[in-house]
Design brief:
By secondary structure, the chain is of the alpha/beta class. The protein contains 14 helices and 16 strands. It is elongated and about 70 Å long. The structure holds adenosine monophosphate.
Length: 426
């Protein structure tokens, strides 16, 4: 049964506001990204001083890198620049150090060691580099955590000019930081002699552009996770573009409650019931399918050991928590995914960290992996789920940028991308 049908049947509430935004007709001019910025692949890097901003912010425990995903994603760009005969300087951040203070705990030293190994050449880590860097063509140096530089976060133009003075060509390749206007991203792009997009950033924008601008239809989005509040803008923007919107996790619980069902002790947001009703009304106005689970997996406690029970929505007790979608719902969603032309996936549909409540997310993950649709996934938990169920390789494009991925899908302008586009008009 469609959500909107259920809504009408159950809640009987008049909607305070119905947005008359027609689906699939809203365009975002700033997101028309095709070929609107200079690409590294179109620049002659030979004997040039090239400063490359990468996202190398990896988890490090006791000096050991625990996930090299971001490093592996950035490596081909560095190899390309080096092999083209550039003198390569790599600029990156790690963690949230205090500006103006060197903290060994936030140093990029383990990253320099990893790069040295993977590039099979020494990659020195330079601590003092703002007044100039000595680097030869074919060599690669890593510049220490740029968030230790005063003015980085505030996008200080003076700091941006110092970064720019280091190079002839600035390459913005850090999609994961493209949503932040900082000196090493947005600021330096404006003042570098030449500024272009690196291959990783360009691939992200191409994949996201393909999804939002000319998707193979039906376009289906899955938005799971814990809270509607963190994904309200995303839900509203996607609703104007997609043919089907599957909500999951704590987000789905808020929609279930908004439709008048008992959600017991489940995670949901009472303050957002009206917002959820508005979204359901908007979906109805647009003809967008927004299915709500017909069955769910409940438990008496939020625990890996709690006994899972499959229930229909009508049977949920006040002491129970919804921790996953049920098998009937998972099968219905998998069918929708199999029929889709494009799938965007952000967020698990249950507490997948506990095996007893991961089945729904697993069924959806397998459906995405097996679908003929062009698929794109992003966000920390989503990638963890894709890894857990062994399907990450079978997703067409896995985004490296959590926050930037979401902001792009929310319809927001990414400051670094806007700056690149603006430079392309110089
Ligand atoms: P987010 O960080 O907002 O993307 O949310 C991801 C988290 O939501 C994961 O850690 C999931 O365990 C959690 N989650 C998913 N479904 C539920 C649920 N039904 N109740 C509580 N937490 C959930």
């Amino acid at each position: 049964m469609r959500a909107v049908e259920l809504l009408g049947a159950r809640s009987g509430q008049a909607f305070i506001e119905v947005w008359i935004i027609c689906c699939h007709q809203v365009t975002f001019p700033h997101q028309d990204l095709s070929m609107s910025f200079l690409r590294m692949s179109n620049c002659d890097l030979h004997n040039r001083r090239v400063l490359i901003r990468e996202d190398l912010n990896v988890p490090i425990e006791n000096g050991r890198i625990t996930s090299t995903q971001r490093l592996a994603a950035a490596l081909p760009t560095l190899q390309k620049a080096r092999d083209a005969g550039a003198a390569v300087m790599v600029l990156a951040h790690r963690g949230r150090p205090r500006e103006g203070v060197f903290a060994a705990s936030e140093s990029l030293a383990p990253v320099a060691a990893w790069l040295s190994r993977e590039l099979a050449q020494p990659v020195p880590l330079l601590r003092d580099y703002l007044d100039g860097v000595t680097v030869q063509p074919g060599a690669v140096v890593l510049l220490e955590n740029c968030r230790m530089n005063i003015g980085e976060k505030a996008d200080d133009p003076a700091l941006a000019r110092r970064y720019a003075a280091l190079c002839e060509i600035f390459v913005m390749d850090a999609f994961g930081t493209a949503h932040r206007a900082q000196a090493s991203t947005h600021g330096v792009i404006q003042v570098a002699p030449t500024a272009c997009a690196g291959p990783l950033l360009a691939a992200e924008l191409d994949a996201l552009g393909r999804v939002l601008q000319a998707p193979a239809r039906p376009l289906l989005a899955i938005v799971g996770g814990s809270k509607v509040s963190t994904k309200l803008t995303l839900l509203r923007n996607l609703l104007t573009k997609v043919d089907q919107l599957i909500v999951g996790g704590g987000i789905a619980n808020t929609f279930i409650a908004a439709m008048g069902y008992e959600v017991g002790a489940s995670l949901y947001e009472p303050d957002l019931l009206d917002a959820a009703r508005q979204i359901l009304a908007q979906a109805q106005a647009c003809g967008t399918a927004l299915p709500i689970p017909s069955d769910v997996v409940v438990a008496p406690a939020f625990s890996a050991e709690a006994t899972p029970t499959v229930k229909r929505l009508e049977a949920i007790k006040s002491t129970e928590m919804i921790l996953d979608i049920g098998p009937q719902t998972a099968a219905d969603y998998a069918k929708r995914i199999a029929a889709a032309g494009t799938v965007v996936w952000n967020g698990p549909v249950g507490v997948f960290e506990f095996d007893a409540f991961g089945k729904g997310t697993e069924v959806l993950a397998q459906a995405i992996a097996g679908a003929k649709a062009f698929s794109i996934a992003g966000g920390g938990d989503t990638l963890a789920a894709a890894d857990k169920y062994g399907i990450a390789e079978r997703i067409d494009y896995v985004s490296t940028g959590g926050g930037a991925f979401l902001e792009f899908l929310e319809g927001k302008t990414l400051p670094a991308v806007a700056a690149l586009e603006s430079r392309a008009k110089d």
